[in-house]
Specification:
heterotrimer; A: 0% strand; C: alpha/beta; Rossmann fold; 17 helices; 32% helix
Chain lengths: 309, 371, 514
């Protein structure tokens, strides 16, 4: 019984964590390169819609997943243009994207699907595959733990990859340097603009993937409220994780775990589900107060950089 | 002395070029153009949709009244965000403060039995206190424990959201028989206009919540520009090191600023409840009044008086947007237009530079002959 | 001090011709010529704002010249980016260090030209290369230390290594001695010797005449963006150089009447305190300033000066000790209470502590006094009175442009910003004044103004504590010089007996005597 419950808990955790984690990894790229991106929320929403629409059109979940990411990347490009080329206030640009992208998603949805703000359900064949489905007996511990969608585990692998990129490669070293001192990088011949463009577009891409994951794996259709708030939770995870990919992973797992507890506790029907739903947020605040403390924000974060002419 | 007149004329032109209004108006124009292109691309007549937007708001006096009623809570959340910007914090938590404000006003509005003259202010005060307190907790976390306020604001938005849903479902508060909502607030707690002759002109649902918003904006403008409190808050917001050097206790002022900002958002919630909603329904997603407040603050150039106009604009767009389905145009076009406007406001300094250098060149050419 | 010259006049490495650089209407460089040979140390001399840094940024590809051209090793070169400059063998050490604080020394040196092994940055071989380079040119650094943990002197060596790592043959050093001790300056001059011997050319931007005499072969003088002339350093003396720089004869002496100091205004005893990293930086410091004297606090940046002033004025909490102002204990009190005890200060960083740049000049002038009856009642500001006061002070202290009461302070020039602060502080009229680097970044005219004002305060019988990294400033103004090192006062000399070498030795922690 305990094992089975543990299995369910891990299952619930791993259902909630991946989209959040993908978006949080995106946010890491942007924030560490010195561009605040609160548009993650909008980028996830457009990714969620485009992912679902593509799956409905072409039937291939992987293409749909990728195109969902590209839709997010497109808004990343917009954010980069405003923040990098035009030195816009990054919060304002991000706010704009949080109106533009979800607005466009629902607008397109209504335009394509006969005025409905929800897409039809994505067929199971067009959904992201479950890797270990059917190998273990249904409802057993290992079935619960491993039957999750393949991307759930890919997102964990991605953390390792991005950690490697951040701390071991030339690109990662420059990325971190640009977020601390773009002026120094500029004098060393590093193209600050290009690097920030890449990072912000990547952040949109990953956020878009996170959004598409929700419509292609967990929810299987686009609805206007399918994302609401998760982008902001991803940003919180990054601040919580001190702007490190591995830190963001821990924060996302914590959020996911609390959510898992919430799902299980809600089904037991003892306490009001609304009170239980507060747990992840209260735990986050408590964890910050008790353990984590102040995060060191990248020194150049939020400051537009203008190259001298 | 003889060219004084010339000078004032010049400075008027320069003032416009240096101010924000011109660029806001340009951004609004661009927003509508982008919206029109999208509508046309989706096979919807932009003329028809915009026509509906205009007649939907200005078609009848009661439409205008409703647009204003819609605007009032957003003016207040906009004011909340604008005030936070002016004092150096980004209040992304107006959403949560708005929700707890609504909640406090609702509880006082349902359970306290006093005459309207007392009841309405009482509800407003309760909402302001609740919103202020909600924001103050975040301020304390920031000041005492160094916790990033953007993060805690987002958490508190969600806690407020579920708190509201929890309260809605408490049997004593819950509406008897059906409906996922609270009981209606007592008649004495509403801001509805009760004069029948006025109702005939303004429509049945007319309320005077706009006056709360306008008075709040004027008071905030006065505080920011003419009082020592505003001086302190702004000094801390712009440069807390210099403020501390000047003997201002920056931690205390940050807490004051965030509390005031929260109180404004809380009052926004009360205005929505007492002027429009009458009860709180169970949320299925965040209501976004707080996020809309960010837009209002930006369109209003973070100026309190500017927020009144920006809020009215947004209120009208929002109210008009509800009628777009009548012409089969998605109401989300409003979000797209608003998003585009903010985006162009974000890069407005680029236009400003271009226009100023153009004006500068023209002036230089004009003076070139004389020199 | 005999120095060996390594100039090879047959090889011209840099030739800049008629360089003009405009920013909008402002002409920063107006037809400047510069020729540098192999193995040469070429100084560029000019006041703050004369256009030295602009010229070097043009040479380094950070700015594009409006007109004029550059030849490198005899070939015309379009240097449109630092990358191009690096490629051509030009390297620059900026006045404000361009370092990534949380990165290690090695990482900073290789950034932008990282050796790669497979997919990863090869930090191991990079580290070896750094050690090799640092030994070859006698530039001692710790390759694994983080920048935020090392001294200013070492940071500068990192900057030089960065340039050498890129294989530069022409090094531009922009005000390299700004925050070094005389001994460290001596070491730098030695390093410059090593480099030129190796065939490198050095362009040295400075306004310090002594250093030019000690290290340079040739000197080009720039005044208000214009080329004045190039001289052989061996053939001119310091006074001549100064006159060329300023365009008139200058006296560096300040008139100071003899007077006996009065009672104690500031008494600091056994002060302990921590810096922003929570490391103990003040370790039992004692200092006393009496009325009618200027006490100069000399020392290298980072030995506790900033923290001392912040604790005295209440911006930072000390851990133990005593601070008495006019006989009143203020240790641990708030900035407000300390201000009211009778102290004013000209802060080190005028843009950080001195002014709210977004506020109007008028609002900045009441930063400590907005709550007083003159400017507000019952919490409401008296706008007319504030305006009137501003107009009066702008006139009295010659803040330019006139009529800038309503202008944001950020729009004024550095010198005028400083005048706004001085106007405010002098109006507060307290018996004790603390000035921290009051002339940093100002031009000669403004410096004279500030010095005159400080001495005037002293002559009026006020107590002045002058904290400065400019030893010359301390020596010419102080009645008493105290040297701070490692959080303590390590030496005390009467101003008239001060000897630069002796002070320098104490600043570096050697030869302490009480």
């Amino acid at each position: 019984m305990f094992l089975r419950n543990l299995g369910l808990l891990i299952n619930a955790t791993m259902t909630y964590t991946p989209p959040l984690l993908l978006a949080a990894l995106g946010s890491c790229f942007s924030e560490r390169s010195g561009v605040v991106n609160i548009g993650i929320e909008g980028m996830m929403t457009i990714g969620a819609f485009v992912g679902a629409a593509m799956a409905l059109t072409c039937g291939n979940p992987w293409i749909a997943f990728l195109v969902g990411g590209l839709a997010g990347a497109l808004f990343g490009l917009l954010h980069a243009m405003a923040c990098v080329s035009f030195q816009a206030d990054q919060t304002i640009s991000g706010t704009a994207i949080n109106f533009l992208a979800p607005g466009l998603a629902v607008f397109l949805c209504k335009a394509i699907y006969d005025g409905s703000s929800d897409t039809p359900a994505v067929d199971i064949s067009a959904k992201l595959p479950k890797v270990f489905d059917g190998i273990f007996p249904v409802g057993s511990f290992w079935d619960n733990v491993l039957s999750n969608y393949s991307v759930a585990y890919l997102s964990l692998v991605l953390v390792a990859v991005i950690w490697f990129v951040f701390y071991k490669t030339r690109f990662g070293m420059r990325l971190r340097a640009v977020g601390e001192s773009p002026e120094a990088c500029d004098t060393l011949g590093i193209n600050v603009y290009r690097l920030r463009y890449i990072c912000v577009i990547l952040s949109g891409f990953l956020a878009g993937l996170g959004g598409a994951y929700i419509t292609l794996a967990t929810v299987s259709q686009f609805r206007p409220i399918v994302i609401v708030g998760q982008g902001f939770m991803a940003i919180s995870a990054v601040i919580f994780g001190k702007f490190k990919p591995q830190g963001a992973l821990l924060a996302c797992l914590l959020f996911g775990f609390c959510n898992g507890v919430k799902v299980l506790a809600t089904s037991s029907n003892v306490v009001s589900p609304n009170l239980i739903s507060m747990i992840p947020y209260i735990v986050t605040i408590l964890a910050l107060v008790l353990f984590v403390g102040t995060a060191r924000v990248p020194a150049a974060n939020g400051k537009p950089f203008q190259k001298a002419k | 002395m003889s060219n004084t007149k010339e000078k004032t004329k010049n400075s008027f032109g320069t003032k416009i070029l240096h101010g924000n209004l011109l660029y806001t108006l340009i951004s609004i124009l661009v927003g509508f153009v982008v919206g029109a292109i999208l509508l046309q691309a989706a096979g919807i007549s932009a003329g028809e949709a915009y026509g509906k937007l205009v007649t939907g708001v200005f078609g009848k006096p009661k439409f205008i009244v409703w647009a204003i009623v819609y605007a009032s809570p957003i003016i207040l959340t906009g004011l909340s965000v604008a005030f936070s910007f002016q004092t150096g914090v980004f209040n992304i938590g107006a959403e949560g403060q708005y929700v707890v404000g609504t909640l406090a006003a609702c509880i006082v509005g349902v359970f306290v039995k006093v005459p309207a003259v007392i009841h309405v202010p009482l509800c407003l005060i309760a909402a302001a206190l609740a919103g202020g307190l909600w924001s103050m907790i975040v301020a304390v976390l920031k000041v005492k424990r160094g916790i990033n306020e953007v993060l805690s604001f987002i958490m508190f938005n969600w806690i407020a959201y579920y708190l509201s849903n929890y309260v809605v479902n408490i049997p004593a508060v819950h509406k008897e028989g059906g409906g996922e909502a609270t009981k209606d607030i007592l008649e004495s707690a509403t801001m509805l206009i009760r004069s029948e002759s006025l109702q005939e002109v303004l429509g049945a649902g007319a309320s005077y919540n706009i006056f709360v918003a306008v008075i709040a904006a004027v008071v905030i403008a006065f505080i920011l520009n003419r009082t020592t409190l505003g001086y302190k808050l702004k000094a801390v917001g712009f440069n807390r090191h210099a403020a501390e050097y000047g003997g201002i206790n920056s931690n205390r002022e940050i807490m004051t600023a965030m509390s005031i900002s929260g109180a404004l958002a809380g009052m926004g919630g009360a205005c929505q409840l007492m002027g429009m909603g009458m009860r709180i329904s169970q949320f299925s997603s965040q209501e976004s009044f707080g996020f809309q407040g960010i837009t209002v603050a930006l369109i209003g150039s973070t100026n309190p008086i500017g927020c009144i106009f920006a809020g009215l604009f947004y209120g009208a767009m929002k109210y008009g947007g509800t009628k777009l389905s009548l012409v089969n145009a998605p109401s989300e076009i409003v979000d797209i237009i608003m998003g585009t406007i903010i985006f162009f406001i974000a890069i407005a300094h680029v236009f400003k530079r271009l226009l100023l250098s153009y004006a500068g060149n023209k002036k230089a050419k004009g003076e070139g002959g004389a020199k | 001090m005999g120095r060996e010259s390594h100039v090879d006049l047959s090889k011209t490495v840099i030739a800049m011709h008629d360089i003009v650089k405009k920013f909008g209407d402002f002409v920063a460089n107006d037809g400047i010529n510069l020729t540098v040979h192999k193995g040469e140390v070429h100084a560029i001399l000019g006041e703050n704002g004369a256009g030295k840094s602009t010229l070097m940024n043009v040479l380094y590809g950070l700015y594009h010249p409006t007109s004029g051209y550059i030849e490198v090793n005899g070939n015309k070169a379009a240097i449109d980016s630092p990358e191009k400059a690096i490629e051509l063998g030009i390297g620059m050490v900026h006045q404000h260090f361009m370092l990534v604080q949380p990165f290690s020394v090695t990482e900073n040196i290789i950034l932008g030209m990282e050796p790669v092994k497979g997919l990863t940055v090869d930090l191991k071989s990079a580290r070896e290369q750094v050690i090799e380079l640092s030994q070859r040119y006698g530039l001692q650094v710790d390759p694994d230390a983080k920048i935020e943990d090392i001294s200013v002197g070492m940071q500068q060596r990192v900057e030089i290594l960065k340039v050498l790592y890129r294989g530069a043959d022409i090094l531009i050093l922009d005000e390299p001695t700004a925050s070094l001790t005389p001994q460290e300056i001596g070491e730098l001059i030695e390093i410059i010797g090593h480099l030129t011997k190796d065939g490198k050319s050095i362009i040295l931007i400075t306004h310090k005449l002594k250093e030019i005499k000690a290290s340079a072969d040739y000197c080009t003088i720039i005044r208000q963006g214009k080329y004045i002339q190039t001289v052989n350093v061996a053939e001119v003396n310091e006074d001549q150089l100064a006159a060329m720089m300023v365009g008139r004869d200058v006296t560096f002496k300040v008139d100071k009447k003899e007077q006996k100091p009065g009672e104690d205004a500031l008494v600091v005893k056994n002060l302990h305190g921590k810096d922003y990293r929570n490391v103990e930086i003040l370790k039992g410091l004692d200092i006393t300033v009496r009325k009618g004297e200027i006490v100069g606090l000399a020392g290298v940046d980072g030995n506790g000066q900033t923290e001392l002033v912040e604790i005295i004025t209440g911006l930072r909490k000390g851990t133990e000790g005593s601070v008495m102002i006019h006989g009143k204990e203020v240790f641990g009190k708030t900035p407000r209470e300390i201000f009211e005890a009778g102290i004013t200060s000209i802060p080190a960083d005028r843009q950080k502590h001195g002014l709210v740049l977004q506020f109007s000049v008028a609002d900045n002038l009441i930063l400590q006094n907005f709550g007083e009856e003159e400017f507000s009642s019952h919490g409401i500001l008296k706008r007319d009175a504030i305006q009137k006061k501003a107009t009066e002070l702008i006139e009295k202290f010659d803040v330019r442009p006139r009529g800038s009461e309503g202008k944001p302070a950020g729009q004024l020039s550095g010198g005028n910003q400083q005048k706004v602060i001085i106007a405010r502080e002098i109006t507060n009229d307290s018996e004790l004044l603390i000035a921290v680097n009051p002339t940093r970044g100002l031009d000669v005219g403004a410096i004279e103004y500030v010095h005159k004002y400080l001495v005037e305060q002293r002559n009026k019988g006020k107590a002045v504590l002058l904290v400065s990294f400019e030893l010359d400033e301390i020596m010419s103004l102080s009645d008493e010089i105290k040297v701070i090192f490692d959080g303590k006062i390590v030496g005390s000399v009467p101003g008239r007996d001060a000897n630069e070498n002796e002070l320098g030795l104490m600043m570096a922690g050697g030869g302490a005597h009480e």
